UniProtKB/TrEMBL annotation, chain B:
It comes from Celeribacter ethanolicus. One of its GO terms (molecular function) is heme binding. Its cofactor is FMN; heme b. Part of the MsrPQ system that repairs oxidized periplasmic proteins containing methionine sulfoxide residues (Met-O), using respiratory chain electrons. Thus protects these proteins from oxidative-stress damage caused by reactive species of oxygen and chlorine generated by the host defense mechanisms. MsrPQ is essential for the maintenance of envelope integrity under bleach stress, rescuing a wide series of structurally unrelated periplasmic proteins from methionine oxidation. One of its GO terms (cellular component) is plasma membrane. The keyword Membrane applies. Heterodimer of a catalytic subunit (MsrP) and a heme-binding subunit (MsrQ). Belongs to the MsrQ family. This is Protein-methionine-sulfoxide reductase heme-binding subunit MsrQ. Pfam families: Ferric_reduct. Residues 49-159 form the Ferric oxidoreductase domain. Keywords: Cell membrane, Electron transport, Flavoprotein, FMN, Heme, Iron, Membrane, Metal-binding, Transmembrane, Transmembrane helix, Transport. Its main location: membrane. It is a multi-pass membrane protein.
């Protein structure tokens, strides 16, 4: 069986591929706060209270403080983005997100010139997030981006899916989406954003730095120590679907390749 | 317990072999008909692999059940071993044919990815066991048959380690399996030491 060469274009922000179904996107999730099984989040995330919700923005910003979700949403432009989504486990989907560019939120808080990185934190609420009662990861979940990655117009905070409110298992009410990086970078249910001068230590890197780096850009040439990243299985293809070739930066090389000029991506993985 | 043992003696082993066909047939049907979720290949691969490990572990329960509970199920041990091997072959086939698909990547995975190397080693160790599971081989190999079949211990340990390693992070479920395997091996330790010191090989049972 030959590997299918992906046939898609990125037109504006959207891929021309057919999105996965709502059913697929909401029933196959990695959200270890609700359990490690792919169907655990769909089963257990219903208990999460997402209203009221606010995001603490602190660190190197001009206007630190607690930003209410409603307040944020009244000041940003919600857009639909049909993004490719590639998990580090070598499966992928196409997802029609609704959300706004992260740079809009960062502008609300006013990033100081000394800031170089953005650190994100997921809600820690073990009474509603049963997975957090076990030390599978060092809770709360933390992710990070370099400031230029965070300001890139492809980087969004998603608030919805298929025009509907974001389901809890997908990271309600507010999650990061960085389409050229492995899925675990797209941190869910964000409650805290910190602008900092130091590279944040993201949770998966802290758990196993040999397997998960800070950048985690989709890259078929750099293997995960336990499996190849050269190909992926597109969810929804059924039992007899062929694997697809994985594309560098998940197909967004034209848009983001310049961010990594001169870097050795096999070392900065 | 005697009644249980008498009852067990009356049950033939062939229904076990026949029944063993049901789970993989069901998984395949469920996968094709969309009842195994949105990633049916992984679901089939993992379910059949886990089933193989479970049956292999069950086959290791037979000796301690006899020793500590007096329950004699030894006539079912060969069937359990062969069924476990059958499931592991299917697990491997799903991985090769439906999951990875690309021959060069399959070969690269086997020698480059430790958890796959380990799983593969466990499978390779089981081949001579399956190949010598018929009565004539048991007779021909004599006491060497028993020595050869000690390979089941490294095989099941490697299987358990394979399960732990394929998950992201240290997850509870595979660690429980590995703990169970360790317990089953420890239960064998004292008597093994006793036998070795006496130099006596107990009579081989042929069930």
């Amino acid at each position: 069986q030959a590997q299918d060469m992906p046939k898609f274009e990125i037109k504006g922000f959207d891929t021309t591929e057919t999105p996965n179904t709502f059913e697929e996107i909401t029933n196959y999730n990695n959200f270890y706060e609700f359990g490690t099984g792919k169907d655990d989040p769909a089963r257990y995330a219903g208990s999460l209270t997402t209203d009221p919700w606010s995001v603490e923005i602190d660190g190197m910003v001009e206007r630190p403080g607690s930003y209410g979700l409603g307040d944020i949403l009244s000041k940003v432009d919600i857009d639909e983005r049909i993004y490719r989504f590639r998990c580090v486990e070598a499966w992928s989907m196409v997802i029609p997100w609704n959300g706004f560019e992260l740079n809009q939120l960062l502008d609300l808080a006013g990033v100081e010139p000394s800031a170089k990185y953005v650190r994100f934190e997921t809600l820690y609420r073990p009474e509603e997030m049963p997975g957090q009662r076990r030390p599978i990861l060092d809770w709360p979940y933390v992710e990070g981006l370099r400031l230029d990655e965070a300001m890139h117009p492809l980087t969004i905070m998603a608030t919805g899916l298929y025009g509907q409110e974001l389901p809890n298992q997908n990271g309600a009410p507010l999650r990061l989406v960085v389409p050229w990086k492995y899925g675990f970078k797209s941190i869910k249910s964000v409650v805290k954003i910190t602008l900092t001068g130091e590279q944040p230590v993201n949770t998966w890197k802290a758990a196993n730095h040999r397997e998960y780096g800070f950048y985690s850009n989709v890259n078929p040439e750099v293997s995960h120590p336990r499996w190849s990243q050269a190909t992926e299985r597109r969810i929804g293809g059924g039992v007899f679907a062929s694997r697809m070739a994985t594309v560098k930066f998940n197909g967004y090389e034209e848009q983001v390749g310049a961010l990594y000029k001169g870097m050795d991506l096999s070392k900065e993985y | 317990m005697d009644r249980l043992n008498r009852f067990a003696r009356r049950i033939p082993t062939w229904p076990l072999y026949l029944g063993a066909l049901i789970p993989p047939a069901w998984y395949f049907y469920a996968g094709v008909s969309g009842q195994l979720g949105v990633d049916p290949v992984k679901a089939m691969e993992h379910k059949i692999g886990l089933l193989g490990l479970q049956v292999l572990i069950a086959s290791l329960c037979i000796t301690p059940l006899r020793r500590y509970a007096g329950l004699n199920l030894i006539k079912f041990r060969r069937a359990l071993g062969l069924i476990a091997f059958f499931y592991i072959v299917l697990h491997l086939l799903v991985w090769i044919v439906l999951d990875v698909q690309i021959p060069s990547q399959i070969i690269a995975d086997i020698y480059k990815r430790p958890y796959i190397t380990i799983g593969m080693a466990a499978f390779v160790l089981m081949i001579p066991l399956a190949a010598t599971s018929y009565n004539a081989a048991i007779r021909r190999l004599g006491r060497n048959w028993r020595r050869l079949h000690w390979l089941v211990y490294p095989a099941v340990v490697l299987g358990g380690v394979h399960f732990v390693m394929l998950r992201k992070g240290w997850q509870l479920e595979p660690l429980l399996y590995l703990g169970g395997i360790a317990l089953l091996l420890v239960l064998r330790l004292p008597s093994a030491a006793r036998k070795r010191s006496r130099g006596v090989i107990p009579q081989q049972s042929r069930g």
